[in-house]
Description:
Elements: H1 16-32, H2 44-51, H3 55-67, E1 71-74, E2 80-83, H4 88-101, H5 106-124, H6 130-147, H7 152-168, H8 173-200, H9 206-225, H10 228-250, H11 260-268, H12 277-280
Antiparallel strand pairs: 1-2
Helix pairs in contact: 1-3, 2-3, 4-8, 4-11, 5-8, 5-10, 6-7, 6-9, 7-8, 7-9, 8-11, 9-10
Amino acid sequence: MPQPDGPVPRTGRVRSDRVAETVAAHLRERILTGGVADGTLPAQEALMATFGVGAPSVREALRILEVEGLITVRRGKLGGAEVHRPDGASVAHAIGLTMQGERTHLRELAEALLFFEPACASACATRADRREVLLPALEDNLHRTADALGNGPEFTRLGREFHDLVVDSTPNTAVRLLVRSLVAVWTTQEETWASESWEAGRYPDVASQQHLLDEHRLMAHAIVAGDATGAEDLARRHVEGSQQLILAEFGDRLIDATSPDATAGFRRLSFPAGRSRDDIA
């Protein structure tokens, strides 16, 4: 196999699309391993020289990466290929689109989260650094959520951030990425529910909001105390109870990943409170 910086071998039997795929594979590896220093790919002419291929193959390779969401190609005098390493938002959107294509109902997603989220809470309670790393993040979220009591959409946004924090703090990388994506799909649906319910005057009252916040406080206390069993039980009861509010209205709806509201929701997704994976992983 040719090295990433070496020329791509070409023979009369190799189609141009195969050459483009080979170039795209090398560039993809660089992007995923952090080998693109300034956040942009080299100019097209430089890529042609590096890989020993023509302009059509380079353009097709860039098109492949753009479709995958790994780059954005800017045209014009100041153009170039801006790199985007995969994150929770891109993975979640892809899963959401697949669920919508499979005509998955919100109830099915709720069942999956009821299985996975409590396990994440339990795993967080086993972290040796939970007091140093998790406690400040959870306390900050709880304070901001308390300040949002009475503002339905903002209360929901911060409540979902709490769930994100717990899942993003799960020690196992594979579990964290998988469950984070499922949680993100749910979040876009719940935020739509919150907006619609708030505008229609059906959003839960302040007393109900306070009850949900108190459940978050209990979960946070169990996690920080290292009570894995307690954290899991509390999380299961909380997730199941809070899901009922949304499922009562949206349970029979199909997962929505393509509407303007859903698309905007996925774009807004990021690690809680501006934190990166390295901050909490």
